[in-house]
């Protein structure tokens, strides 16, 4: 028998129980974020250079630096009058403005951005940001770049370095998806299809989208008894049943009005999706894998590493929170597992019936 070549080997196949690799929860306090913003703003940079830092978890490997294995959060700052251009790449992004005002030119779309507005940037979209206000323009940029880097598939280039795709010629092409063979192989769904299905994939329009804070605000609960929901999803229709803001992430706004203290429930729930919380109004408390964290406006948390049990409480002041989780990505793989009751079943959401009677994080509807 031939010896294997030196660039691979055979190893025993994995068997038995496994749980996701749980990173430690972390809190990045408001004061440290503010100090980093000041440092970025004061740094001398060449015109057009970025003022940007990524928040990198101590568990992160050199390849795929992020706050979780699947998410990078960058703090971006522009002084008044500054503009930056960023080449396209195949990461997708949710961005959230912390202060100031300006323009985001994302591909062909131009958005006016201001405090607490959110927007999404599809992959392969060149970006230009301009601070047109009198204060610093500050935003958080959430991307799946670490995951792509770990998989060895991260790509970035300048769009003008490449020719544009030729427009499709009218008429029937013999080798296109709609003329390719598509043959039933069994009564329960197995089919054989032509290669054209792989190269001429159905296009789902996925332009950049903006969620201005002033448009979201009337739909968020802001006072006790206003009969509005305390958590709302920024939905992008391109993500369909995966209910994302991008193809990787959902972003929600939680808005609990001031009211009675709501301590964290004694037990939490857990899911394979990670959750990061940026708290921008009020205060509260989270218990993550037995660790207790008090938080207030301006604090950012990796508040639920994958499969970490977590529960959240809200102070009498209420709280507003931007949550980003990688549900759509995991639903796309059929990998999103969820355990609501720590003594209950582990459900595969999207593949079997999920939770009902649920109107907010661990809040039952009546
Ligand atoms: Fe959760």
TrEMBL record:
GO terms for molecular function: dioxygenase activity. It comes from the Bacteria. InterPro entries: GDO-like, RmlC-like_jellyroll, RmlC_Cupin_sf. PANTHER family: 1,2-DIOXYGENASE PROTEIN-RELATED (PTHR41517), CUPIN (PTHR41517:SF1). This is Gentisate 1 2-dioxygenase-like protein.
